[in-house]
Amino acid sequence: MSTSAPPPPPPPLSPRPRTAGLNCPKCGAAISLRSFGQAITVVCGGCHSILDAKDPNLAILQQFEAITSVAKPLIPLGARGKLRGTDYEVTGFQRRSIQVDGISYTWQEYVLFNPYKGIRYLSEYNGHWNDISICKTLPTADFGGATYLGENYKHFQSAEANTDFVLGEFPWQVRVGEKAAVTDYVHPPRVLASEKLDKEVTWSIGEYMYGREIWDSFKLPGDPPKAWGVYENQPSTVATNVTGVWVAFAGFAVFLLVLMAVFDMHAKKAPVFNHTYQFNRAEAKNEPSFVSDEFELTGGTATVEVKSYAAVDNHWIYLNYALINQDSGQAWDFGREVSYYHGYDSDGSWHEGKQADDVTIPSVPAGHYYLRIEPEVDPSLATISYTVDVIRDVPVLGIYGIAFVALLLPALLISWRAYTFERSRWSESDHPPVQMSSSSGDDE
After folding, report:
1. Which residue in 19, 56, 75, 152 has a CA-CA distance of 20 to 30 Å to 186?
2. How far, in Å, CA of 58 to CA of 150, rounded?
3. Statement: residue 409 has pLDDT above 90
4. What is the pLDDT of residues 84-126, one digit of tens each?
C-alpha cells in the first residue's frame, strides 16, 4: 500500500503585498513599492519627485512643487479594504481638474492593487464615489452616446482634464500638468469614460458607490464627506419606476371609470317630487317658512338628490331646507344658494355662479317625507319663482373624483421628484435643461 504526500494548500486569496525598500535619488527618502511589476512610476512623498519604477536606480522623471492647498487623501496610501468581495490596497493618489466657463472643478482618484486581480480605481467628487475598472472590450461611441456590453449610455460631458497632484505608485507614466481629453457617458448607476492622451485612448467603466460603503470597506474612522448636489451617474432617489407608476395609475383610473359607469347604470334616478314656488316679499314677512306636500321614498336606504332652480340674473336666492321623515321625525337640515352674476370690465365679459344647484343626501331610509323650506332673497327682488326637485337613488360621483385625485397626487409627486433630480443631474452636463428666461422682454 503506497501513500502520497498531500497537495500543498492553495495560496491565500488576498495576501498582503510585499514591499520593496528603495530610496529616492533626489532626497534619500524611503520609497516602498507595493505593486511591483504593475508600477510604472512612483512619486516620492518627501520631495514630490516622479520616479521611474522600472529603473533599478529610480530615475527622476519629473519634479513638481506640491500644491499646499491639496488635502491629504481621504483614504491613506497603504490602506487595505474589501471592495466587491476582493481585498485591495491603496497604492496611488492623484488630484485632477477641469475648467468649465472659467470655473475649476476638481476630483480625486485612488489606485487600488490586488496581486491576483490587478489594478482598479476609486474616484471621489464632492462626496460622490465611483468604483472604476478598465473596459474589457472596446465600446462603440459617437458624440450623442455610447454602447458597452449591450447597454446604451448618453453623452454627458467632454472636457480637458489636468493632473494637478500625484502621490504613490501608478501603472502608467504619470506627469503633473499632463492634460487629457476626457468624455463621459452615463447610464446611472454606471458611467462610461474615454480618456485620450496623445494618440492613445483608454476606456473605463465606473459604478456609483456611497461614501459609507467606502468607509466601511476600508475601516476608516469618522464619517465620509457629505455628498453635495447630484452626480452624473448617481442613482435617482426616486427608486420607483416612473413609467410603471403611470401605467398603474392608468389601470386604476380605467377601473374607477368602469366602476362609476356600472353604479350609474344601476342607479334608479327616480323622480319623487317636483314643485315650483313663488316667493313674494310682502307675503313672506308673515310666513317665512312653509312645508311641501308629502312624497314617498320607496325601496331600501338610498341617496336622495335635491335640485333647486331659479331664473336669477345678477341676483341670488338662498333656500334653507329640512328633509323630514314624517313617520320617525328624523330630519336632514341643509342650505343651498342659487346665484348668477355677469357683466363687463377692462378684461372683457365675465360671469360667475349658475341658476341651478343640487345636493345629494346619503343613506336616506324609505318612508314618507316632506320638505320644510325657508327662502331668503336678494333685497332688490320683490318676487321670484323657484323650482324644487327630489330624486331617489342617484349615483354619488364625487367619491370617484376624490379617488381619482388620491391616485393622481402620488404619481405627480413621484414624477416631479424624478424630474427635479434629473434636471439637477443634467444641469452639470454639456446638455443642460432648457432654462426659462428670467425676463419677459428685452431691455430698451
Report:
1. 75
2. 44
3. yes
4. 889 999 999 999 999 988 889 999 999 999 998 999 999 999 9
Q: Kindly list the structural domains of the chain, giving each domain's residue range(s) and its CATH number in brackets, ordered by start.
A: 20-217 (no CATH), 268-394 (2.60.120.380)
- Degrees (nearest 5) of the Cα angle 209, 98, 126? 35
Mean pLDDT, rounded, for 249-278: 94
Cβ-in-10-Å burial (0-12, 13-18, 19+) of 80 comes to: middle
Q: At residue 399, what are phi and psi to the nearest 5 degrees?
A: -65, -30
- For 430, counting Cβ atoms within 10 Å of its Cβ (0-12 exposed, 13-18 middle, 19+ buried), the class is middle
Confidence band (pLDDT; 50, 70, 90) for 67?
A: low
Q: What is the mean pLDDT of the chain?
A: 88
